[in-house]
Design a protein that fits this description.
With about 140 residues, the chain is mostly helical. The protein contains four helices and no strands. It is about 85% helix and about 0% strand. It starts with a helix and ends with a helix.
Length: about 140
């Protein structure tokens, strides 16, 4: 059980932080029309988003191992629901990053990915708040 806790915390530290940093830096790369940096940000976001599923998996396994109705408590349900919402938002960010890379890589000067820039900025801010709420729910139970 101790190993599951360490894996859960380790995945949280080493995946959530880089995802947040990458998504928050994407709007600047779009504004500067830095396609190579944006491609790196997209790749980083995709890799760490997939790895962040380890946080959910090991947290769920830990909740099952502890038992005692832990997964049925309101803060656990809220945390898992928020994590799933965050995963969906990461998929949307990945889509917008891909669209921004295509727009900035094209020869057309008309599309400068302003729509994607605003959407990525807004969603990454919301994503950061979701991570903080999940952290609060995990640290301050009942």
């Amino acid at each position: 059980m101790s190993l599951l806790l360490w894996l859960h915390i380790g995945f949280a530290i080493f995946t959530i932080g880089p995802i947040t940093a990458a998504t928050m830096s994407a709007p600047r790369a779009i504004r500067n029309k830095n396609v190579s940096a944006l491609q790196f940000i997209q790749r980083t976001t995709r890799i760490y988003s997939l790895a962040s599923l380890g946080v959910f998996v090991f947290g769920l396994a830990l909740g099952i191992m502890i038992g005692d109705g832990l997964l049925g408590r309101w803060y656990m349900t809220a945390s898992m629901t928020l994590f799933i919402v965050a995963a969906v938002l990461l998929v949307i960010i990945d889509r917008d990053l891909r669209t921004a890379v295509q727009a900035l890589s094209s020869e057309s000067a008309d599309d400068d990915a302003k729509v994607e820039n605003g959407r990525i900025a807004a969603i990454s801010g919301l994503l950061s708040v979701i991570w903080l709420v999940i952290l609060f729910l995990m640290v301050i139970p009942e």
